[in-house]
Specification:
Radius of gyration: 36 Å
Structural class: mainly alpha
Order of helices and strands: HH
Strand content: under 5%
Distance between the termini: 119 Å
Largest sheet: none
Shape: rod-shaped
Number of strands: 0
């Protein structure tokens, strides 16, 4: 009987299995490193946060008191109450 041929076939199969296991480990590492996509609630909260930031900037730009140079100070005469 020719056992040498059977040993070579078995060794080739072992190498194929090792390569396949290496590929599976690499895929598992890639999946673990991938960020989890947010669900419906997460997407809605992200959109709400972006909307609040944009609206806050618009409101601040609209209602913020402009600073005046200090060289143009006015003297107030009389009372504020009229």
């Amino acid at each position: 009987m020719n056992y040498w041929q059977y040993e070579m076939l078995a060794e080739e199969r072992r190498e194929e299995i090792r390569a396949e296991m290496k590929q599976i480990r690499l895929e598992e590492q890639a999946l673990a490193a991938r960020p989890v996509s947010p669900g419906w609630y997460g997407r809605r909260m992200f959109s709400l946060g972006n909307w609040m930031i944009a609206t806050g900037r618009q409101l601040r730009g609209r209602y913020e008191i402009e600073s005046r140079p200090t060289s143009h100070t006015h003297k107030v005469r009389g009372s504020f109450a009229r």
